[in-house]
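Bug #77: duplicate submission created two jobs. Keeping one. Sequence:
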Amino acid sequence: MAERSDSDSRNLLRRLRDVLAEPGNGQDRLDRITSLIAHSMGTEVCSIYLFRDPETLELCATEGLKPEAVHQTRMRLGEGLVGRVARVGNPINTHDAPSAPGFRYMPETGEEIYSSFLGVPIQRVGEKLGVLVVQSKEARDYKDDEVYGLEVVAMVLAEMTELGAFVGDGEGIGHSHRFPVMFRGSSGQEGACEGRVWLHEPRVVVTNPVGDDPDHEKQRLEDAVGALQAQVNDMISGSGDMDMDHRQVLETYRMLANSRGWMRRMTEDIALGLSAEAAVEKEQSQNRSRLEQAADPYLRERLSDLDDLSNRLLRLLTGQGTHTGAELPENPVLVAKNIGPAELLDYGRGLKGVVLEEGSVGSHAAVVARALAIPLVIHTKRITTEALNGDPILVDGDQGVVHLRPEDPVANAFRDKIAMQAEAQKRYADLRELPAEDRQGTRINLVMNAGLLADLPSLQNSGAEGVGLFRTELQFLTRSRVPRRDELAQLYNRVMDAAQGKPVKFRTLDIGSDKVLPYMKPQDEPNPAMGWRAIRVGLDKPGVLRMQLQALIRAAGTRPLEVMFPFIACPSEFYAGRDALLRQRDREAALGRPVPECLKIGAMLETPSLGFAPDSFYQTCDFISIGGNDLKQFFFAADRENERVRRRYDTLDVSFLTFLERIIVRCEATNTVLSFCGEDAGRPVEALTFAALGLRTLSMRPASIGPIKHLIRRADLAELRQIVQRVRNEGHSSVRNAVTTYLAHL
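Kept job's structure:
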């Protein structure tokens, strides 16, 4: 085949555009396109395979293969040469297809007479849409310019697929933004809501993939790249006293934005007939395919830099910025790849829920979602590519499920669930002023978790008897610098004022692991959950810890103050934190400032090691709070961010309950106040079991207090304890079934 010129490629793309503009359904367009490409490239076969679902490719149109194979031939991702192209995201070019690794013979297509094979991915910014294939009887490799030209054609097909150009009556062809989709992710925060999608960063839609005037498109690209370079330079010049790591990130941006290779490749795409926008997206898609498979973690990290620069460039070219002029819909549900705590707080309590493609159960966003008391679902892969602003959406934070554009039966069933929950909350409101006492008069102290001043009204509304955990890290996570002591003192003072005399346990700064401050250098740790975090950071950064302790003391004045240190793994860490707090109290007193008349100092028990600490540790602690989320993951050696293992282990496993009972007995012996704080404290089966074991204080999200109080008032904890003991004596590994059966008969 003769080498193709730039004008040949532009002519092909223009003819493609004309075909797409002609009347007809999606199948008609696909059929005309395969015929056009085969004729233009001088090949006997051209076939288009599109994804029927994320794991299955379907032959949707062909010129040269048997027509009856259309919509009948399917293959799994990675199966055959076509499946391999789709999986790796790179072309496969061979003169002897039957001998190529991974070849799969499909007799229904009649392709056995064709030797040469060239397949290129149809993809758009990380989203795999299908595979474009040409085949010939002649045994030869396709030339580089032919491969490149077919990739340009595939880029146009990707854009047209995204715009719904192939929607119609054809079997198996559907529009990715019209049909109901269910996403099964993970629960980041419990609760359920119905609303409309609000995309945090709306996708840029390329409506003109084919460029008529290459010189004009090149000039548009040069102008946009120049503006991008100026933006990056402005960010660097305005960075002031920014830390070295942040400056290095911006310098990487500048290096990429000034890359001659990046500009050259996009210019070559324009010469072959793409518009400036399509050229940027083609380069972005191919970079994604390469870097996602890179073994070097540094190269994989550059993927987000390239994505960000490409998206900035696309917005400059299209004018489709983050602020598109669209109005926030009623009952907005935020949908994003990921989001920082400050950005999420900017949206505030107007949000009904949050859905993230990434995130983690302990991430900044999860902490803020809990503070805002809105459902959060994480790990919903591809939802940002599927959702459009205004789409109806159902978020089930209890199950970690999201329904996008749900069908009526699903929506109606979901509304019934929300209505039942709302009705139950009304019933629980009647219990607000009543104590959480079981039938025999055993009282359980139900307190709430908080992290924002806005959480405090829930103290009165929920019937909580105090704040069992006030997370102080949110005030650090949402700032670009370390907060000043006076700022923190004012905040803590307002928290105590809002509590109206009810006790508040302030947890000192719990950062590290997945909670990295914007101005703190991330640590390159193989296992950050077990690394430099919480009290370990505080003791190594005594200035920050000292400043926070001073702020707490000044906020309290003469009022009682309760402070607990997180992630204590050995008594010496608690003693060091306690000594630091006492020194600051004595210093404030020496300066003539008021100090708390009653100062209680406690520790969070989140590692099994502390369960075996000497009696002197328990005697020194004024109180201990069991941090159930971390304790459970370390007890079972099951990372709570790992979906493969975190659900494998049961909180009501007999071994875990036996460990908790050990802590209860030790605290009773030393007269140390003990509480359980974590997600399990707000779950009915777990909460009742903990209370039956002897835990007398449970700290949970405000919405859980009513349901837990309702159950406690109907239960007999002594009777339940006997059931738990009987099940353990019988040798069962978990007490869950027995406790669930007991609660069902209340």
